[in-house]
TrEMBL record:
Organism: Paraburkholderia rhynchosiae
GO molecular function, one term: DNA-binding transcription factor activity
PANTHER family registered for this protein in UniProt: HTH-TYPE TRANSCRIPTIONAL ACTIVATOR AMPR, HTH-TYPE TRANSCRIPTIONAL REGULATOR
Keyword hit for Chaperone: no
Record-stated family: Belongs to the LysR transcriptional regulatory family.
Keyword Transcription included in the entry's annotation: yes
Gene Ontology biological process terms from the UniProt entry: DNA-templated transcription
Lineage of the species this protein comes from: Bacteria, Pseudomonadati, Pseudomonadota, Betaproteobacteria, Burkholderiales
Gene designation per UniProt: ampR_2
Keyword terms of this UniProt record: Activator, DNA-binding, Transcription, Transcription regulation
Identification of the protein by name: HTH-type transcriptional activator AmpR
Length: 292
């Protein structure tokens, strides 16, 4: 039967192994050097092996000590990380979400206060991206993406449809009485090459060569449009504030579908309580948006 190993002895060994000194370990643990030495010796006796070679100046670890140290360091780090999440008698759960930048600024940010008010013990961490994200390697619980809902190894819940429409300044809009007038304007492009071609088809006009700048973010592209750099083709839903304040105008009502916004997560990943709360809140908010 495996011997009982006191937590204090394991802690004394782990600290001594990091410092290679009983004295520095004693300072860290707020005990005497003799107490640390005694705890380590007791651990060695119970394991039936030597963990340190005692040298005239400090300590040297044996192979057995080298094998044990990383396991204990990881365990104590994980315990400490969990304990730090307790505050005021409540457990604070961290939730990490990757969000495509356009959605984050144009839709999610104005609503985050309601989530925080409803679930103050969920510590939300948002990481923006340009729709290129790896849930596993980036350690994300969720990713909010724009597309058709099919990403390898992921599950997805549709949040919002976001058809693309023309957006520009009022000054440029005044020059556009019909879609064919776009021939004289700079057309700003996203990384999706077919967006303008599809819009021309929906407008019933022949496609024209497009030589405008290319942006990896609709948010950045529309910011250029607001500066008068040209006409953007973007999801108007993400720019309600700019349209309401008159900084942007929709010169035509013609829209094309390029995709939707989706909440995605890894297949097989267990849903934490924070994940469940956030996904339910997000779906409810999106449903309310669609119904309004």
């Amino acid at each position: 039967m495996r011997p009982y190993l006191p937590l204090n002895a394991l802690r004394a060994f782990e600290s001594s192994a990091r410092h290679l000194s009983f004295t520095r370990a004693a300072l860290e643990l707020n005990v005497t050097q003799a107490a640390v030495s005694q705890q380590v010796r007791m651990l060695e006796e119970r394991l039936g092996t030597t963990l340190f070679r005692r040298l005239p100046r400090g300590l040297a670890m044996t192979d057995e000590g080298l094998a044990l140290r990383p396991v204990l360091t990881d365990a104590f780090d994980r315990i400490e990380a969990v304990l730090k999440q307790f505050e005021g008698g409540h457990f604070h759960e961290v939730l990490t979400v990757g969000v495509v930048g356009t959605f984050a600024v144009g839709w999610l940010m104005p609503r985050l206060k309601s989530f925080r008010d409803a679930h103050p013990f969920v510590e939300l961490r948002l990481l923006t991206n340009n729709n290129l994200v790896d849930l596993a390697t980036e350690g994300l619980d969720f990713a909010i993406r724009f597309g058709d809902g099919t990403w390898p190894g992921s599950l997805a819940t549709r949040l919002l449809d976001a058809p693309l429409t023309l957006l520009c300044t009022p000054g440029i809009a005044a020059r556009l009485s019909k879609p064919a007038d776009l021939v004289a304007e700079t057309l700003l492009r996203s990384y999706r090459a077919d967006d303008w071609i599809n819009w021309f088809a929906a407008a019933g006009i022949a496609p024209r060569p497009i030589r405008g700048p290319i942006f990896d973010s609709s948010r950045l592209m529309v910011e250029a449009a607001m500066q008068g750099a040209g006409v953007a083709l973007a999801p108007a839903l993400m720019f309600d504030h700019e349209i309401d304040t008159g900084r942007l105008v929709r010169p035509f009502d013609i829209e094309v579908q390029a995709g939707s916004y989706w909440l995605t997560w890894l297949k097989g990943k267990p849903m934490t309580s924070a994940m469940r709360l956030f996904s339910q809140w997000l779906v409810n908010e999106a449903t309310a948006q669609t119904a309004s």
